[in-house]
Write a structure and sequence with these properties.
about 20% strand, about 45% helix, 12 strands, about 425 residues
């Protein structure tokens, strides 16, 4: 670490000396230098007074080139406007500010992702430090999260495949049955029409009219025209409904599997939830009723569609499993899953309520931990709620909480900002 500020131009105002120049012990300097996280200290005028070895590595800038200078006047390979906004917010509110997914691009290298926290120092401390910026390269963690999310989505799709096949096969079956019925019925109608044609021809010749009319009556009786008149329209309606159900299932699967983009885009949350309900139907239909109360006034919300769909799928599946557990325990035979949306001035709220077993008090502080699960092997990997929390809180800037009563059920509450935070680059 440098022990003095770099030479300054003659007309430059005097800069406050670095921390090391103000009497840090060699042991303290060594400790600061060895911290594996990026560590930057700023004074009350946002001048750099501390710049550790990890900051030099991640930002490719030696401490001698920055100590004594205002941070925002230094050309650094990160999103400077986001850092400036975080520093300003910390000054204003006096609270730590987290800057997620801060991109850092060094020449000739792929972009890296930093996680940075701005910590205000306590007032009246005998130190020139006013703010501490601590951060780390989280690129590999973000890549792992993405891989875990994709792996879980593929696992979920694979798990749902049998149920989806069943859901499609049911309407396809009655489409086939009714089509077969219409083919046979049309054959009978053709026979009736053929006799009618003979009758018309005979009437023109004024010949054996009585015999033909007798044959016509027999053919009508055999074809049961009255029955066909009632059932053919019903069969056609069933075919059309079956085709609509198949189309809805396929459309919902496409919407669910659609990866979306890497940037947030306006999403109709009601439609996204409805699509996920359709493809999860085989998970809950035998053990629960599922009801919805969607707010029709809810506007499109800035969101990552694919990630949001995955979160809703995880929460519906968890609700179904909790209700199944309650049924096995003899609490109730069939449960209820209720999903509602509501528009608030600043956020969109989604509630997913179940009448399952509830979450025991002793483990409520662990439910969002990665790989934590109370399910038996084969029913859960412990990734679902952890990834849901990462998506809603870290990626979308929202909130994910829950209310639970053991033995009665759980309600997960999602809140997403209705408007995206301003982009400093926009």
């Amino acid at each position: 670490m440098s022990t003095s500020s770099p030479p300054l131009p003659l007309d430059a105002e005097p800069k406050r000396p670095s921390v090391s120049a103000r009497g840090l012990s060699a042991e303290t300097e060594h400790l600061v230098a060895s911290i594996p996280s990026l560590l930057i200290g700023l004074d009350d005028e946002d001048r750099v007074v501390l710049w550790n070895a990890q900051a030099e590595i991640l930002l490719n800038c030696p401490s001698a080139a920055v100590v004594g200078r205002r941070l925002m006047e230094i050309d650094l390979p990160w999103e400077g406007e986001r850092v400036a906004a975080g520093i300003a917010a910390s000054h204003t509110h006096g609270d730590p500010v987290r800057i997620e997914d801060l991109f850092c691009t060094l020449p000739g290298q792929d972009p890296r992702v930093l996680g940075l926290t701005v910590h205000p120092m306590a007032e009246n401390t005998p130190s020139p430090l006013c703010l501490i910026l601590m951060g780390a390269d989280i690129t590999e963690r973000k890549q792992l999260e993405e891989q875990l999310s994709q792996a879980q989505k593929m696992e979920a799709i694979g798990h749902l495949a049998a149920g989806i096949a069943h859901e499609i096969s049911t309407p396809a079956q009655f489409v086939g049955d009714n089509t077969q019925f219409l083919r046979e019925a049309f054959g009978d109608l053709q026979q009736v029409l053929a006799v009618y044609a003979q009758l018309a021809e005979a009437a023109r010749r004024d010949g054996t009219r009585a015999a033909i009319l007798k044959a016509l009556d027999a053919t009508i009786a055999e074809a049961d025209l009255e029955y066909l008149a009632d059932e053919v329209p019903n069969a056609i309606d069933h075919i059309l409904n079956g085709v609509k159900r198949i189309s809805k299932i396929v459309r919902s699967m496409k919407l669910f599997a659609h990866p979306g983009g890497e940037e947030k885009a306006p999403v109709d949350l009601n439609e996204a939830i409805e699509s996920t309900i359709v493809i999860t139907r085989n998970e809950w239909k035998y053990i629960a009723e599922l009801t919805t109360a969607f707010d029709p006034a809810l506007p499109p919300v800035p969101c990552l569609r694919g990630e949001f769909n995955q979160v809703i799928l995880n929460l519906i599946t968890n609700a179904a499993h909790a209700i199944a557990d309650a049924a096995r325990a003899g609490v109730r035979e069939k449960g209820l899953i209720h999903i509602s949306t509501q528009s608030h001035p600043e956020w969109a709220e989604i509630r997913i309520q179940d009448t399952g077993t509830g979450i025991p008090e002793a483990i409520r502080n662990k439910v969002f931990d990665l790989f934590f699960t109370t399910k038996e092997e084969g029913r859960g990997s412990g990734q679902g709620l952890a990834l849901a929390h990462a998506v809603i809180v870290e990626q979308l800037g929202g909130q994910l909480t829950f209310e639970s009563c053991e033995g009665q059920g759980t309600t997960f509450i999602l809140r997403l900002p209705r408007e995206e935070e301003p982009n400093p680059h926009g």
